[in-house]
Amino acid sequence: MTYISLLCFIVSLFLAKFLHKKWLLSIACVGAFVYILAFVFDTILLIYLGKHFGFYVVTFIKTSLQGAPFSTFAKELALLGCVVLAILLFCVIFYQKISPKLSKNIKFIPIFAIFFITAFLTNPLYINAKELYEIYNPPVAKFKKAVYPFVAVPKPKQSAKNKNIVYIYLESFDRDYLNSKIYPNLTPNLSALTNKIDFTNTTQVVDTEFTLKGLFGSHCALNYMFVFGKDKDKNFSKNIKCASEILKEQGYYLYFMKGAELDYQDTRIFLKQRNYDEMKGKSEILKSGEKSLNEWGVNDDDMLEIAWEDFARLSKEKKNFLQTLLTIGTHAPNGFLSKSCENLSFASDSQMQKAAHCTDFLVGKFIDKIRASEFSKDTIIVLQNDHPLFYSRDKHGEKLQNSKNLFVILDDDINGTITIDKKGTSFDTFTTVLGYMGILDEMNLGRNLLMADSLPFEDDDEIYKKTSRIFTEISYGEIKINAD
User: Fold this and answer.
1) What are the pLDDT digits (tens) for 104-142?
2) For residues 408 and 418, what is the distance between their CA atoms, to the nearest angstrom?
3) In 160-280, where does DSSP find H-type helix?
């Protein structure tokens, strides 16, 4: 459709000289400006986000632009401004060149109109905007019939492993960073970890490709459907049960910390809906004293120092707890170097690779402190990236294009390294952790990869998309009735 749209638009430009009135040509030039702007905008989205305009982009813009540090993307914004000016200049020059040569042969006007309108109707932005409307108005009953056979109602049992959990989400940290053949000496600390189960073939499910969606997908084994306002209601998504609620029911104290503001991407609301007890973001961390900052928030070295202090406190005070952490150092497009890493030697001029090397150093150090402590035997540590790196200025960033996700379970009870090569998704991660603890083997669209296979679908399968569109309408009661 893209090529058809472009062809029709180019033909219409040649036919514009038959618009015998200057006011008709003016309208055509305005339309041309809108068309080119829409086409370029959609192309930019495809380059930087890997997506055409649609549900993902609307959700990303709605949740991720408010509170974002635009200085980080100053280069891209300046380029966008230049592109808009160039399009405007083209339309002005086009008008000036054509207006003196207008033909009186009006029989070509209908042909111009056909090509011009067809160009708009086949424009990728228009097509995806139409699909976006359909996403927000799904045939609920039809979709339920399609997805219910695959949605597993969680049936938790009392945990067989009475241990605390430190769940570390590494921002945009693809698994291939650990591949020494691709990135030699980049992650010596994380690569050297032992007493682990390493899942080497997990991938990201469609519509979970930024932080809030990644967290939701991991916790709940379902796609996060942004529904414009309803998601801020305290009862939003209470029709489903997620990992944090299951742990809460088993007496776990729920703790979360990240370096960015909790209000960014409505993280605070998400955590409250998921029954977290203690939440810390940039503002909460800064109350404890001065910290080193980057454009997004508190640097990882300072955050992880507080995380260690809180881990020790919780280990002494609480019977069981889940400590969820989200790093920030490898955030697009260039990542950030914490002060602790400024003198860390690494043979690359890539800012993002230096940031990944820094994350390896800081998180490796944090894990080593836990494992060297008296609390190690009572602690399970989980490493997972929140989502793949979707955009980077790193000239070697294409090496990550086919990377799998990072997902590792660390526990002193595990002998050596166990490698699991079976296919899994980002929906299976927290479900597998609960499975490792003996709590359950199925949760919504997630499966325990230690005991079962992941759902037999590609990452962008329609089943996942349909479930996303109706997840606020999912009823465990209906699923049980259908199963019977």
Assistant:
1) 667 777 888 888 888 878 877 777 776 677 777 788 899
2) 10
3) 188-191, 211-220, 243-249, 267-273
